[in-house]
């Protein structure tokens, strides 16, 4: 199998964005706040949103299954208060669940959390619980910067995050560290903020000792780890300067990287630097980069081409495309086994 561990519902029916617009407009008058029941999206609309888009590209590229979460830039945790985020997260998580029910062999749901700037992360636990127990989520997206580019939240190693980690460990569910829209004009959302966040989160984990408290917690750093593989020597040296163990001991038992790197030299570097067991196949399609690369004639996000041209052994290639994901996402593995896959 080829499992894409990083997919977002970027093609949701227009009615979803219209509901969100109403919710945001109602921040000035709570009496106008729409209820989740007011969003009426039938199964046919869901099919029409994914069949000519994600499913078509998955078929063209030979991807068997995608871990499917709400659109990252639409999480927008900086908007409104916790109640705003709670309603929006529940609605988006429901939609990903419904898509996975319509195509149970092609999509496995992942959930966003109802984070809000300055609000105790423990408030996310009820939706995390619902997503796993009722919606079958196999993973969650965890935003290390709910402020949208102002970085007002404590580092991921801070104890305020611990209630979320405790629940993730209890459910044996990984978290993908994924920010949302940047409202800071200094940081372009997908070109700077996303990659900055990947790098920042990794450095926070190097500085702290989170995995001593949560030895079975698993975190996925997307987009190939941001700048991490390119500056691996810097991080190794900083770990030494901080009195931390080697990175292989300190973080690589719990931290994984995906293959959302959109050119061959970048993918080659990722595999040269990061142990194969820590790399998961992903494309993030249909996402930030949708065009065709004029140098190759193929879509930038057709990452299977890069992975299969990286010179991996057959065993390592199978690990990256399937087996690592099954190990990091045990609930996904259980779902596949229930389907005799």
List keywords for this structure.
341 residues, alpha/beta, six-stranded parallel sheet, three-stranded parallel sheet, 9 strands, globular, Amidohydro-rel, Amidohydrolase family protein, lyase
Brief rundown of the structure:
It comes from Streptomyces hintoniae. This protein is an alpha/beta fold and 341 residues long.
- For the termini, the CA-CA separation is 9 Å
Low-confidence stretches: none
Integer-rounded radius of gyration: 19 Å
Please estimate the helix content.
Answer: 40-55%
SS strand fraction: 5-15%
Count the strands?
Answer: 9
Main structural class: alpha/beta
Main sheet: strand order? 4-5-6-7-8-9
Give the topology string: H per helix, E per strand.
EHHEHHEEHEHEHHEHHEHEHHH
User: What best-fitting shape do the alpha-carbon axes yield?
Assistant: globular
- What's the tally of helices? 14
* Most strands sheet: 6 strands, parallel
Please give a structural write-up:
- There is one protein chain.
- The chain is α/β, with parallel strands linked by helices and 341 residues long.
- The chain has helices at residues 14-25, 43-61, 72-75, 82-102, 125-133, 162-171, 189-207, 210-213, 232-241, 247-250, 264-273, 303-308, 314-328, 330-338, and strands spanning 3-9, 65-70, 107-109, 111-112, 140-142, 175-177, 219-221, 255-258, 279-280.
- A six-stranded parallel beta sheet has the order 4-5-6-7-8-9. It has a three-stranded parallel beta sheet with strand order 1-2-3.
- It is globular and about 55 Å long.
- The mean pLDDT is 97.
- It comes from Streptomyces hintoniae.
- Keywords: Lyase.
